[in-house]
Design goal:
Elements: E1 4-9, H1 13-24, E2 31-37, H2 40-49, E3 54-57, H3 66-76, E4 81-86, H4 91-100, E5 104-107, H5 115-123, E6 128-129, H6 153-159, H7 162-171, H8 177-184, H9 188-202, H10 207-216
Parallel strand pairs: 1-2, 1-3, 3-4, 4-5, 5-6
């Protein structure tokens, strides 16, 4: 097998520094790092300018939800193999990633013993799921022990529906229910329902706190 041209995409440069060194130490298959990206937009630009066989990507980017990014990458770069490398280990994220078309899912909490197998399986056209990850809930209902101890921007945004995200963005622009309804072509009563649901999901009690929360957590 020829050296595998590989791209790393993660918002944290320090993590990519370490992971790049780890990949370059793998004897077989040989990994050739051809680029790194810290945002969805820079990843797309990179893919247009280098020939890549494999992409290791996180899900949480400042400019785009990684899960929503996957289908377009698979459509535009048909020969590219995509492996999620993430700290998000809940079965819902794993299942959705495979539904979106990824070839593999590797947890940042896993040891490195499976990396060679992961790359080999993906590059011959198989899918790979790292040890300990699941695509269905555990029978005992317990969550993964490596689940995020706090809710970051990515997790908070996943709580909201697409319509709720649209309403939230307009709320932060200080529009009232009627103005939001006019822009989204829905009734102001429907906007009111969305507003209440957004507040409930994000745990805030009034519009002022909602706007502050959304800005502080970069939800808009």
């Amino acid at each position: 097998m020829n050296a595998i041209n590989t791209i790393l995409a993660d918002a944290h440069e320090l993590f990519m520094d370490g992971f790049e060194r780890i990949l370059e130490e793998i004897d077989y298959p040989k990994i050739n790092i051809v680029g790194r990206a810290s945002s969805a937009s820079s990843l797309r630009e990179l893919l247009y300018n280098v020939e890549a066989d494999l992409l290791f990507m996180e899900l949480n980017f400042v400019d785009e939800d990684g899960l929503s990014l996957i289908p377009s990458l698979k459509e535009e770069f048909k020969s590219l193999r995509v492996c999620v490398l993430s700290g998000y280990t809940d079965h819902k994220f794993v299942k959705e990633a495979f539904q979106k078309g990824v070839d593999g899912y590797y947890s940042k909490y896993n040891d490195l013993g499976e990396l060679s197998e992961c790359v080999n399986e993906i590059m011959i056209g198989n899918t790979f799921l790292a040890t300990g990850l699941e695509i269905t809930p555990r029978k005992n209902g317990s969550s993964n022990s490596n689940a995020q101890p706090f809710e970051d921007r990515f997790l908070l945004r996943k709580k909201l529906t697409k319509r709720e995200q649209e309403v939230l963005e307009l709320i932060t622009k200080a529009l009232n229910n009627k103005e939001i309804a006019s822009q989204l072509y829905i009734s102001d009563q429907t906007v009111g329902v969305h507003r209440k649901n957004i507040m409930r999901k994000l745990g805030v009690r009034n519009t002022v706190n909602l706007i502050k929360f959304a800005i502080d957590h970069q939800l808009v």
